[in-house]
Design brief:
This protein is of the alpha/beta class. It is built from ten helices and 13 strands.
């Protein structure tokens, strides 16, 4: 019996998830639109499944750890070749990407990208993973397709929220702008590249949040909006975690759910090193 997302279960003619294709089917859930970037980036869907590794990104360090753990399938949120679209000429044709693909072939790894699938869940698994990792699962006030709103039990300054995030996610720094020492109670959470104005500004103006916590976004959009808001006397602030730091918790959640769905196959979550150094 194979557990489906959301706790449902379905029988599959006495078979268990023992091929790469079975995991792909589970990850795709109800289906996959033609425009999706999700798909098998390396390896064969019919390969027998020995173990699965899950990570945010397919860095060389993650690939090596996956192989060392005995996994022959790596599920990642982002692509192999340094681009949102691995088919882009500049990325697919780069020497570094070619060497990485050669390493993957020699290691016998299959690599599947699961980006759009978890974002399409209701609620979005990547957002859910971040909110849960921050200990705010019970504080969720509203869930939207591209964001979630949490209400803190006690008002806190944005600066204190930043320290909380650093402890919970084990990240060395965040970027912040706005009224960082003003107390806030309602926070908008927007993972990945959803920190742009199209998502963040309605959170402030329509949903009435005091603080937005996001992965990243164009610096001329939400940061400038917050700066002007502060100049007018509005107590708004913005914290930016970075893309990977905001979405890695969601891939950890995906790994936990996949392990529950395939208890007979070892599933390993691989945490990558923090990318940037503040100079």
């Amino acid at each position: 019996m194979l557990a489906e997302p959301g706790g449902r279960e379905r029988k599959e003619a006495g078979k268990s998830m023992r091929t790469v294709r079975h995991v792909m089917d589970w990850l795709q859930g109800a289906g996959q639109p033609a425009s999706s970037v999700d798909g098998l980036l390396a390896g064969s869907a019919d390969a027998g499944l020995k173990g699965v590794a899950v990570a945010f990104n397919a860095s060389l360090a993650v690939l090596e750890k996956a192989a060392a753990a005995g996994a022959n399938l790596l599920v990642v949120h982002e692509g192999i070749c340094y681009s949102h679209d691995d088919r882009a000429e500049w990325s697919a044709g780069s020497r570094s990407a070619g060497l990485k693909r050669q390493w993957i072939r020699q290691a016998g790894l299959a690599v599947y990208r699961s980006h759009d699938g978890p974002h399409r869940r209701n609620p979005d698994w990547i957002t859910e993973g971040l909110v849960s990792s921050l200990g705010w699962g019970d504080a969720v006030e509203q869930v939207m397709p591209a964001a979630a709103i949490v209400r803190l039990p006690e008002p806190s300054t944005a600066r204190s929220v930043a320290e909380h995030i650093k402890r919970k996610l084990n990240v060395p720094w965040l970027r912040g702008i706005g009224g960082l020492d003003y107390r806030c109670s309602r926070i908008g959470i927007a993972v990945g590249y959803r920190g742009g104005g199209s998502v963040a500004v309605p959170l402030y103006e329509e949903s009435g949040v005091d603080l937005v916590v996001a992965g990243e976004g164009p610096e001329w959009e939400t940061p400038e909006y917050v700066r002007d808001s502060l100049h007018r006397g509005d107590r708004r602030s913005l914290l930016l975690l970075g893309h990977a730091a905001s979405e890695e918790p969601g891939m950890r959640l995906l790994a936990e759910r996949l392990q529950a769905a395939v208890p007979e196959i070892p599933v390993h979550f691989i945490e990558d090193a923090y990318s940037f150094t503040v100079l």
